[in-house]
């Protein structure tokens, strides 16, 4: 069966996400019985708003979830540059506590579990610490701005939860070259797959993302419960082929979702192809495509799965 992905045109960060979640009530309904809801946002830096998930998009997500879930919603992040408190202040997030029952979680200060990911030669593993609250959430939400990336082509809902769940002092261990990082992201995603994936594409980032790129209006919002399908459709809307994105390719091969339009049922817009834009890729884009494993590398690496 095709995965259902909800798509709407967007006239603003709050407005677009609110509209697309209005189409996705069957997904939000599942939060009603959740024990713990965690909303993972994406800041990267505490000092450049264009690299961060817009607070309006998160407000729309929390507003929609609050209709079904009556407990405290945890908003989680730990920026690579600056402190969580700096980011919350700079991006207007502290006002959310005045409107909703939310708490902020600094992933770098959370309890953790250890996981092994690949080293650069794919013949050994290294240990990373992954947020316990992220792993334990039975309703995990990823909400992001679509951005190009300096290592894995694009950063969308899956990469947000996977790399963001790794505590800051250990994230560098994921960066073991194009082949290892894509395999490691896909592997960890099996433990951190969002229940609800949301892309606020009112304005994204193109060029030298995930921090230093330029604004790129896209004018859409995307949501769904299959993040592989959500990220694949968003990549297509950005002008990229999802099959060129290593971690998405692996997850699709492992049965987690389709990379092709034929495997997706788009709800909300009759002709999504009319909304496709062309994001300028990162300057290292062509090098990033060298993530595919040779037969010998695959045999060496996949024995750890």
The number of strands is: 12
Major sheet: 8 strands, mixed
Looking at CATH, which topology would you report?
Rossmann fold
| Total separate domains | 1
Helix content: 25-40%
The proportion of residues in beta strands is: 15-25%
Written as H for each helix and E for each strand, in order along the chain, the element string is EHHEHEHHEEEHEEEHHHEEHHEHH
The helix/strand class is alpha/beta
CATH class placement: Alpha Beta
Global morphology: globular
The number of helical elements comes to: 13
End-to-end CA span = 27 Å
Gyration radius (Cα, Å) is 18 Å
pLDDT averaged over residues: 97
CATH architecture title = 3-Layer(aba) Sandwich
| Unreliable residue runs | none
Strand order of the largest sheet: 4-3-2-7-10-11-1-12
The CATH homologous superfamily name equals LarA, N-terminal domain
Quick take:
By secondary structure, this protein is α/β, with parallel strands linked by helices. It has helices at 13-23, 25-28, 55-65, 84-90, 96-99, 132-136, 157-165, 168-171, 178-189, 227-237, 246-253, 285-288, 295-301, and strands at 3-9, 37-40, 73-77, 102-106, 112-118, 125-131, 139-144, 147-148, 154-155, 196-206, 214-224, 264-267. The strands form three sheets. An eight-stranded mixed β-sheet has the order 4-3-2-7-10-11-1-12, with helices on both faces. A two-stranded antiparallel sheet has the order 5-6. A two-stranded antiparallel sheet has the order 8-9.
């Amino acid at each position: 069966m095709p995965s259902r992905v909800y798509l709407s045109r967007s006239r603003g960060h709050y407005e677009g996400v609110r509209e697309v979640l209005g189409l996705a009530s069957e997904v939000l309904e599942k939060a009603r019985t959740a024990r713990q809801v965690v909303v993972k946002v994406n800041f990267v830096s505490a000092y450049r708003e264009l690299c961060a998930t817009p607070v309006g998009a998160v407000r729309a997500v929390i507003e929609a979830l609050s209709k079904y879930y009556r407990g405290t919603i945890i908003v989680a992040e730990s920026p690579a540059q600056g402190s969580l408190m700096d980011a919350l202040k700079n991006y207007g997030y502290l006002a959310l506590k005045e409107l909703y029952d939310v708490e902020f979680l600094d992933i770098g200060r959370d309890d953790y579990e250890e996981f092994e990911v690949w080293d650069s030669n794919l013949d050994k593993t290294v240990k990373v610490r992954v947020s316990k609250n992220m792993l334990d959430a039975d309703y995990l939400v990823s909400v992001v701005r679509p951005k190009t990336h300096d290592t894995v082509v694009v950063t969308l809902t899956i990469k947000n939860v996977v790399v963001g769940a790794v505590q800051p002092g250990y994230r560098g261990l994921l960066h073991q070259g194009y082949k290892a990082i894509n395999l490691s992201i896909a592997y960890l995603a099996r433990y951190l797959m969002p229940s609800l994936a949301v892309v606020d594409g009112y304005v994204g980032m193109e060029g030298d993302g995930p921090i230093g790129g330029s604004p790129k209006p896209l004018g859409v919002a995307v949501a769904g419960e299959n993040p592989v399908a959500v990220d694949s459709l968003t990549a297509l809307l950005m002008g990229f082929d999802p099959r060129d994105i290593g971690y998405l390719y692996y997850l699709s091969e492992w049965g987690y979702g389709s990379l092709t339009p034929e495997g997706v049922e788009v709800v909300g817009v009759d002709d999504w192809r009319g909304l496709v834009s062309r994001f300028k890729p990162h300057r290292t884009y062509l090098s990033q495509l060298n993530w595919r494993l040779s037969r010998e590398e695959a045999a060496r690496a996949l024995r750890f799965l």
